[in-house]
Design a protein that fits this description.
Helix content: 10-25%
Number of strands: 10
Radius of gyration: 18 Å
Bound molecules: iron/sulfur cluster
CATH topology of the largest domain: Nucleotidyltransferase, domain 5
CATH superfamily of the largest domain: Dinitrogenase iron-molybdenum cofactor biosynthesis domain
Number of domains: 2
Largest sheet: 6 strands, mixed
Shape: elongated
CATH architecture of the largest domain: 2-Layer Sandwich
CATH class of the largest domain: Alpha Beta
C-alpha cells in the first residue's frame, strides 16, 4: 500500500503537480495525501519527492496496547504493569482488533536500574508474535524490550484515538521495525 509519511512530508506540492488525479494536499495539516492507488503516476511522484516521503508499506504488523480497562491506555504505571494487552493487526491501511491477552502477574524488583529481567521475560512471553508494543510510559526494561518490539509511546489516553495515531505514524513504525542489523532500535514517540 502506498502512503505519505506525515513525519517527512513538507507539503511542497511537487507530487500533486505530477499526479493531481490521485494525490491532494491537506493544507490545514500541511501534508500530502493519496486519494487512490494510481500506481503509474504515484510512482513518478515518489521518485520526484524531495523528502522521500511517499512509501510503499507491505508489512503486516501485530500491535499490543497496554490497558487495565480495554478502553484507555495504562497511564498510572508503565506498560509492563498493564492488566491486559489489546492485540491489533495492521494490514493494507487497516488496523483491527484481534484479541485480548491477560498479562501474567509478576512482582517486579523495582530497585534494579535497568529493570527486572524476570519481568521483561514475563512481558515478552505474553507478547509472542507481537511486533509493536504501545504504552504511555515505558519502564526501565525498555533497554531489553526495544530489541524484541518496536516500543512506541502515545500521549493520547483513549485507545480508539490512539489507533488513528498509530495509522498516521505507520511509516515511522515500519522504519523502526525494519532497522537493519547494527542499528540499535530506539523507543519512538507517536504524535
Ligand atoms: S512531494 Fe513529497 S514532500 Fe512534497 S508534498 Fe508531496 S509527499 Fe510531501
Amino acid at each position: 500500500m502506498l502512503v505519505v509519511d506525515q513525519n517527512r512530508c513538507v507539503g511542497c506540492g511537487i507530487c500533486i503537480t505530477l499526479c493531481p488525479e490521485a494525490m491532494t494536499l491537506e493544507k490545514e495539516k500541511g501534508f500530502a495525501k493519496i486519494l487512490m492507488e494510481r500506481l503509474d503516476c504515484i510512482r513518478k511522484a515518489m521518485l520526484a519527492c524531495p523528502q522521500k516521503a511517499i512509501k510503499e508499506i507491505k508489512d503486516k504488523l501485530i500491535i499490543a496496547i497496554g490497558t487495565d480497562d480495554h478502553k484507555t491506555i495504562k497511564s498510572n504505571d508503565h506498560v509492563g504493569q498493564s492488566v491486559y494487552f489489546q492485540i491489533l493487526e495492521y494490514s493494507e491501511g487497516n488496523l483491527v482488533f484481534k484479541e485480548t491477552r491477560e498479562n501474567p502477574k509478576y512482582q517486579e524488583d523495582e530497585t534494579k536500574v535497568h529493570g527486572d529481567p524476570g519481568k521483561a521475560r514475563a512481558t515478552a512471553s505474553v507478547l509472542a508474535g507481537v511486533d509493536v508494543l504501545v504504552g504511555k510510559i515505558m519502564g526501565p526494561n525498555i533497554v531489553r524490550l526495544k530489541n524484541q518490539f518496536v516500543c512506541a509511546i502515545i500521549r493520547e489516553k483513549d485507545i480508539a484515538a490512539a489507533m488513528d495515531i498509530i495509522k498516521a505514524n505507520i511509516c515511522a513504525i515500519v522504519q523502526e521495525k525494519n532497522k537493519t542489523s547494527g542499528k540499535e532500535r530506539s523507543g519512538i514517540i507517536l504524535k
